[in-house]
Fold this sequence. Notes:
- The protein is of the alpha/beta class.
- The protein is built from 10 helices and 15 strands.
- The chain has helices at about 5, 20-30, 45-55, 75-85, 110-130, 180-190, 210-215, 240-250, 270-280, 320-335, and strands at about 10-15, 30-35, 40-45, 60-70, 95-105, 135, 145-150, 155-160, 200, 260-265, 285-290, 305, 340-345, 360-365, 370-375.
Amino acid sequence: MYNYQKTNRYFAQVADDLKDIAEKEILSLGGHNTRQVYRGIYFNSTPEVLYTINFESRLIHRVLAPLILFDCHSDRYLYKVSSQIEWQDFLDVSQTFAVSATVSHSAIKHSKFAALRLKDAIVDYFRLHKGERPSVSRKNPDLWINLHIENNKATVSLDTSGGSLHKRGYRKETVLAPMIETLAAAIIKYSGWDGSEPLYDPFCGAGTLLCEGYMLASRTPAAITRANFGFQRLPDFDPLLWGQVKQKGLQKRIELSKNTIAGSDLCLRTVKSATHNCSIIDEENVINIEQKDVFDIPSIEGKTIVCNPPYGIRTGKDVDLGDFYKRFGDFLKRRCCGSTAYVYFGQRKYIKNLGLKPSWRKQLSNGGLDGRLVMYELY
């Protein structure tokens, strides 16, 4: 019996800035006994809830099921203990796997070396028991294995998500410096928008904020396009229960009225990419996107505005955008009466250039950048 089966305890990898709202999400989906730690949240769960969290969570990157925990002071011992896992419970020689590892404050210093030793243990297990070995695939493996070593204590886990859950599957066409989907979902969540009033993004880029807004308001499971999950590799996987969970999640969906969600962008190529991406999840064509310079928009009144304006660093342009943000602040003040704006700043220094009084600001990092989400009530 593996550790997760004994304890019913799992680990959700979550960006540190999102842990508070991610913990609430886990609890709302049926998880319990949560505990926040560095880069994640421990929680207890039944198999049904585990499947539900993987299918519906908008904020979690992945959920790990611990297989074994042990003291680990050398790569030899890592190899020895890992070789004793019955790897044929999860994989056969015709399938592929990948190992990711993190190490800190331990005798084994390098994560790549730790991952290599675990990979060797898995391969040699199959050579010994089956006479042949499965292949490694770093792009799209059948099985993801995670190794975490901290203070010489090792945990070998199966990734029940089957790769990061931020990869929703709708962003087939990308643009320069796209926003990660979990961050976009957090922005929509923090805005409190629920579809009862129109949503508008005047810098829509690849359409990530629009897609996340659509999925939240329509109650569409975030992983609706995902074909396979890692939990299907668990030895106690229940396909009947998974079918019921999936059906229940899909039955929650509701239709949105036309023009509930709209956006625009200056670049025609970007608009085409966003339109294509949104069409993958928005089969009713609820989302309307057009090519338009934000300063050519006559007004955005009585709406929720969410946006991620350009901010130089991510686009590789060392330019001063102070004047741009001042113009955008004037636009919000003069043409967006009765709206509420949630503006994401990749560079905090530009908050003052907007010239508006924030109602609140929240720290939200994006790809290593220390960003801020700022709320403005526009009268």
